[in-house]
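Dear H.,

Thanks for agreeing to be a second pair of eyes. The structure we're designing against is below in token form, covering all 377 positions.
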């Protein structure tokens, strides 16, 4: 790590080199010959290189036991790639328009090898690689190496904590704005401005689900005018210093009804139970079970329509998933959301979400704003 005033220390060539070694070690342990990493979160995590966009021109980091890490890039993007700290830990090979990038990639791979490929590799590139190497096998990264980025080191955790603090500051400010009489999209725009103001460089989502729209868990924000008495789900986050934030609170415009108070209290207790189930060595599915049990026992089981949580890191949705069937254990350093909800179609929804990290003693919330039902104007 090297330190820069005002911002977290930057990851160095050595940090990235260590990640590349760990990735290759994990791949070998999973019976694979290596990894083929295309632009997206895996490449950012392994090299710090975030091309402006994944494109029809092949960019791929190849990690195998037989050779040094090698990043294949289009010639015109070489200067940008070379500027990324982690790329210094790899040899850089460029290809010019008109050349065959798949032949160049094949030369780095075994004709009968088995490789993990980034989930978000374009079909265009993967199909061409398969055609160039018909004897080799390619496997989805998170299917074979699901926990590759799941356990955060101290520097990554510090960034996730900073992002959570930023998001918490946004919540404390949004509860002071006017809701009644304004469109969801206007409150969403306030959330986006506040996220940028808190230090986020990227806003990923600003959910404002008022009244019946709150019953749609992934409703973003629309033109509905918020009314007095509405329950409003606020779920927002983005990237700060390269790491994600994601928090949800549900507020009420004016006095809540008894029914809303009751539903909110069930969700609050479910979220509490989910966080209390976090413990190293315990299966991830136990977090989902603990939260779900509270909601089922309150009679709302059919209305909790999604898993309880997802990992967070250089993206806002990644393994580990807190879902029935995920039997892999929690490990200190993992960071994920605990976000149960109850959705009553046509009426309203309630969700409460915090990012939690696994410590030796249990779960620790990174989001710390009050989880009671707040009243807004
Ligand atoms: Zn989501
Ligand atoms: Zn969320
Ligand atoms: Zn989430």
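And this is the sequence the design step returned. I haven't edited it by hand at all.
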């Amino acid at each position: 790590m090297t330190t820069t005033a005002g911002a977290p220390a930057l990851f160095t060539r050595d940090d990235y080199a260590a990640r590349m070694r760990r990735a290759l070690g994990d791949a070998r342990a999973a019976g694979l010959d290596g990894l083929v990493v295309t632009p997206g979160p895996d490449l950012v995590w392994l090299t710090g290189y975030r091309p402006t966009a994944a494109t029809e021109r092949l960019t791929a980091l190849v990690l195998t036991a037989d050779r040094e890490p090698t990043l294949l890039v289009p010639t015109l993007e070489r200067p940008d790639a070379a500027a990324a700290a982690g790329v210094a830990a790899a040899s850089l090979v460029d290809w010019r328009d008109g050349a065959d990038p798949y032949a160049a990639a094949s030369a780095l791979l075994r004709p009968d090898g088995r490789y993990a490929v980034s989930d978000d590799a374009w079909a265009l590139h993967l199909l061409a690689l398969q055609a160039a190497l018909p004897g080799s096998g390619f496997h989805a990264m998170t299917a074979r190496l699901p926990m590759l980025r799941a356990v955060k080191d101290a520097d990554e955790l510090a960034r996730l904590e900073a992002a959570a603090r930023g998001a918490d500051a946004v919540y404390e400010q949004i509860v002071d704005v006017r809701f009644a009489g304004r469109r969801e999209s206007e409150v969403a725009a306030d959330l986006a401005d506040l996220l940028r103001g808190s230090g986020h460089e990227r806003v990923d989502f600003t959910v404002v689900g008022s009244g019946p729209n709150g019953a749609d868990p992934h409703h973003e924000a629309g033109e509905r005018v918020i009314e007095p008495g509405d329950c409003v789900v606020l779920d927002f986050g983005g990237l700060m210093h390269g790491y994600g934030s994601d928090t949800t609170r549900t507020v009420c415009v004016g006095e809540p009804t008894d029914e809303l108070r009751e539903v909110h209290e069930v969700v609050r207790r479910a979220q509490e139970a989910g966080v209390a189930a976090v413990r190293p060595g315990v299966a991830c599915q136990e977090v989902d079970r603990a939260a779900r049990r509270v909601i089922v026992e309150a009679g709302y089981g059919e209305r909790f329509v999604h898993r309880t949580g997802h990992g967070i890191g250089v993206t806002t949705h990644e393994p580990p998933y807190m879902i029935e069937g995920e039997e892999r254990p929690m490990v200190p350093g993992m960071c994920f959301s605990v976000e149960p909800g109850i959705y009553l179609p046509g009426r309203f929804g309630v969700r409460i979400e915090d990012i939690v990290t696994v410590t030796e003693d249990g779960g620790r919330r990174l989001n710390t704003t009050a989880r009671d039902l707040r009243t807004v104007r």
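Two observations from my side: The pocket of zinc ion (ligand 2) is lined by residues 235, 237, 246, 248, 353 (CB under 6 Å). Residues 154-174 form the longest helix (21 residues).

Warmly,
E.
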